[in-house]
Amino acid sequence: MAGRIPQYFIDQLLNRIDIVDLIDGYVPLKKAGANYKACCPFHGEKSPSFTVSPTKQFYHCFGCGVNGTAISFLMEYDHMEFREAIEKLASGAGMEIPEESQGFTPKQTVSEGIDLYQLMNQVNEFYQKQLRQHPEKQEAVDYLQKRGLSGETAKRFGMGFAPEGWDNLMSTLGVSASAQKALLDTGMLTQNEKKRTYDRFRHRIMFPIHDHRGRVVGFGGRVLEQAEPQPGNPKYLNSPETPIFHKGSELYGLFGARGGIKVADGVLVVEGYMDVVALAEAGIDNAVATLGTATTPMHLQRLFRHTPNITFSFDGDRAGRAAAWKALETSLPSLQDGFQVSFLFLPDGEDPDTMVKKVGKDGFEELIKKATPLPDFLIDSLTKQADINRLDGRAKLSNLAKPLLEKFPNGVLKKLVLERLSALTQVSPHDLLGIEPPVSQEPFTGNSSYGNSSYGNSGYGNSSFGTNNKGYGGGKGYDGNNFRKFNRAPQQSAREPYITPVRRAISLLLQYPKLHPEFEVLEAIPDEQVRGIGMLHELRRMCKENPTINTAALLERYRGQPFLDTLAKLANHHHHNLETLEEEEAINQIQGTASKIIAEFNSSQPERIFKELEDLQKRATLTKLSPDEEARKEVLASYIRASYK
Ligand SMILES: [Zn+2]
Questions:
Q1: Residues 6+ apart with CB under 8 A from 403
Q2: What's the gap in Å between 303 CA and the centre of ligand 1?
Q3: 252 Cα–ligand 1 center, Å
Q4: What would the pLDDT profile of 427-469 be if each residue is shown by its tens digit?
Q5: CATH class as words, domain 452-643
Q6: CATH H-level, domain 7-101: superfamily
Q7: Å from CA of 499 to ligand 1 middle
Q8: Would you give the distance in Å from CA 73 to the centre of its chain?
Q9: Level-2 CATH architecture, domain 110-238
């Protein structure tokens, strides 16, 4: 695991680099007022709605709703991991990530001076060339044709041919000792007990496996049918774990399916490469396959970076159901509200390859649409194991449910599943969990006036500020992935949509962090007394501690937290429908907003602040106040002055 990168370093980095230069290197930007614009690289469009703000160091698309910082841009556009993105930005800015944070050793991707990625490219070319030119290529071509694959599809997936023989690859690419060692490190060669070295893949159709950046990192090989399956010669053979290939984090076909996943707004996870390829042949371009392992949390994290909708396809038999149940258990902790997992159970004896040949593209897509939602699969499976007409059956159900419920992240989905199980077992949600009922820890979600519902109903509903309504709730969020939006409705509103005063204050602070002293008066209102005020205070303190902090750095501090999405929207809110305000106007806005918050608080808790100040003043006549008390007295006094403005 990578060590933590200190927050101060990320702040400095985001202060040093320029997001305009960075994005301009990928997508040429044009100046438009205070900002820069381009046609959005994340969705197809003819007129530019992708905006980059040099002051906020933040991008936003009014067409598809994507937004984020320079770090998010590299993660989204260049498919980098969080740390990779930081490393790239840091090296561009001539900055070094602080030593103490480097609690990990970089992956060894060079062997004997040979770059393993480059080597794998050569291996890939070698196998593809064999499929075109080898004297025995016909049996491979015949096989692919028999499976109904066109030359185009074979080419698109980079399929190749490993001819019969022990050293086809070795005698071509592994002539020198160092090259042989590097090929052993990539798993393309293998050794027996007598240290004899030979090609791992022989007489097979070869499927290159790409990582999240499109680099070939391994291969899958399907034995040609003429060969007798023998022990030690399995039907499907994968590259072993190597310095550049980890089955637990890679998915076959994901890199090539990115576009298809976006269009379909979902991904289908199948079990084999042939399924992925056969589905693509039929025109279904959003399938990926695990590589002979069960689904891992890392897989889910990868997939949820591309779409909020995952459908797993399994055989309908007992083994398929067991595998599905395992995938369900792995999925539960990632099910933030807005993310959906479904299960497609195929009839006995069918796999996606055979099924799509029977029912065609439309028929198969219909099956995906009708896949069983995870909550239904969960509840059905549980109720099958216990007779809910009996008291002891309901007790059993509640026992089975408890460990699963505990895996859900807090949110609307958990609440809904809990309610349904509670109705079935007639055990209270409280007792089902065996703990206090879950309290929302998220200041911005839940049923308050700050919840997504009020957002959705206040004119933001049709804009890119709207929430994703496909899930069981509005909130979204996933580690390293929180700037993403999946809502594609265009934004067009003439009037500035209504936002509550506290949200407006947060929005202004995010956009004009240098004006943080203007917000200090609100410090008089204790956290929790007004919804969201604690968040405002927290942000204000960050600005105070770090006077050069910008919008992007403030948002980065909330990466991985569920309300980041809301903050990103607020960072992008157009006050008075203007992209930016003059400083004087921004100060006016802040003061007006603060007055509203103060007036509302005074009417809900009249005298509260007055009383607190009075008490402090009384104490001051008796004893010397501590510095904290003095500071508090100052804040309270300025609050009272503001109350009479
Ligand atoms: Zn866009």
A1: none
A2: 20
A3: 27
A4: 888 777 765 444 444 444 333 333 333 333 333 333 333 333 3
A5: mainly alpha
A6: Zinc finger, CHC2-typedomain (3.90.580.10)
A7: 24
A8: 13
A9: Alpha-Beta Complex (3.90)
